[in-house]
């Protein structure tokens, strides 16, 4: 399946706004290693091969192990993630799958136990941003480079 269109060329103004949001997200309070795990997981949930590939590469550049990257999708059954990472991954899943989850109270309580108020907002902004990127890439069939 080939790409449907180059959304950067089709709407530079919209993409400038997306890039600004991405830059903001990367400068917030969430540590880069955790931010990449969140981006990989949300991208997996959304079926975005392009973003899953890109953020896995970014995570590895920051020292993430292959073993943990392979286990993100099964984080509940993995022993490789800290309580903070587990809370972030549960929150990522609930926010990404909002129509199905409605962000349950137990996930909220788990998040509150590991993150302060600023971090909770920053994490949620990061999740909504990667979800927006996923929707662009999936809708317009952007694929990873081979």
Account of the 3D structure:
The chain is mainly α. Helix content is 71%, strand content 0%. It has 9 helices and no strands. The longest helix has 23 residues, at 117-139. The model has no long low-confidence stretch (mean pLDDT 96).
What characteristics describe this protein?
mainly alpha
Cα radius of gyration in angstroms: 15 Å
- In one word, what is the shape? globular
Strand portion, in percent? under 5%
Helix/strand-derived category reads mainly alpha
How many DSSP E strands? 0
- How would you name the oligomeric state of the polypeptide chains in this document? single chain
Distance between the termini: 14 Å
- Spell the H/E element sequence: HHHHHHHHH
The low-confidence runs, each spanning 5 or more residues with pLDDT under 50, are none
Helix % is: over 70%
Largest sheet: none
Summary?
With 146 residues, the chain is mainly alpha-helical. Helix content is 71%, strand content 0%.
Task: Furnish the topology, listing elements before pairings.
Layout lengths: L6 H4 L1 H15 L5 H14 L3 H13 L4 H6 L11 H14 L1 H4 L3 H10 L2 H23 L7
